[in-house]
Amino acid sequence: MDLIGRSVAARVGYAMVVSGVDLHTLADRTGFDEDDLARRLRSAASFQLDELVLIAGALGGDPLELLPAFGPGDRAVAGVAA
C-alpha cells in the first residue's frame, strides 16, 4: 500500500474515533462487508472515492476530510507528533 492509501486509511480511522463510530456500526451504516472494511482500515486494500463519500456521510463528516492532507489523522502515518 502506498503512502496515499495509508493516509486515507488513517484518516478514516481517525474520523471513526472522533465520531465515536465502531467498525460494526460503520459497516452497518454503509452496507460494506465488515471484514472488507477492516482490511481497508489496515491498509491492505485501497478505498475508492465513492466509498469515502459513503463513509463520510455515515460518520457525519465531509468526504474532503478523508482525503490526504497533513491533518491530525495523518500524523501517525507520517511519524510526526501531534
Question: What does this 3D model show about the protein?
Answer:
The chain has five helices and no strands. The chain has helices at 3-19, 23-30, 34-41, 49-59, 75-78. The protein is globular, with a radius of gyration of 12 Å. The model has no long low-confidence stretch (mean pLDDT 87).
**Helix-strand string:** HHHHH
Main sheet properties = none
Low-confidence stretches at least 5 residues in length (pLDDT < 50)? none
Q: Ends: how far apart?
A: 24 Å
Overall number of strands? 0
**Computed CA radius of gyration, to the nearest angstrom:** 12 Å
What is the 3D shape?
globular
Number of helices: 5
Q: State which percent range the strand residues make up.
A: under 5%
Structural class computed from helices and strand pairing: mainly alpha
- What's the average pLDDT? 87
Overall helicity: 55-70%
